[in-house]
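Q: Structure tokens for this one, please.
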Amino acid sequence: MRPIELPIAGERRAERRDAAANRQRILDAARGLLEEGGFEALTMGAVAAAAGVGKGTVFRRFGDRAGLTAALLEDYARELQDAILSGPPPLGPGAPPGERLEAFVVEVVRFQTTHMDTVMAAESAAGQPTTRVAGTLLIHLAALLRDIDPELDHQALAGMILAAISPPVIYRLRTLSGIEPDALERSARRLVAGVSSGSLARERAEGSGRARR
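A: Here is the predicted structure, written as tokens:
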């Protein structure tokens, strides 16, 4: 997959060293609170205390809890994006596109189960940060599908695959149905097995042959 300009890539502006350090302390503190107590523990006052900064600093930097959640999600998403664009195969470049597709859906599911509190909080956050992240993932996924089979309807199929492993779906399967992360990852791999193996292209070729007969 060729490196391409993405909605999240390169977006962060240069900032003063002290401001960048404050931002990182705040985000690290927010992550710690989420891990320890879930989304209910993520108050602006608690984040400020854990980060060792004034509460006003947190509000000025992120606006509100929704803005802070959005920043956390997009930081995580940048890490995922970096792994896809330049990490080791099969998630990163260098593996056949079918293998990359399977690695991609597994990693997206893993991303959501690992950061479930943040992802679900961002689902209702102002500015729709999960929509922005989904747009980035859609670009990656459509490119992989195009590499597997140029005749596929890449956008439609990519949208359907992402819908099947969207945050609300993974949340319900994980928390309400009690399905373990390993099982979710195996199921995600099976979800795209027909596409990643090239069976759709073979079916189309076989169908054309039958029609000619």
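A few notes: Residues 4 and 101 are 17 Å apart (CA to CA). Residues 1-7 have pLDDT under 50 and may be disordered.
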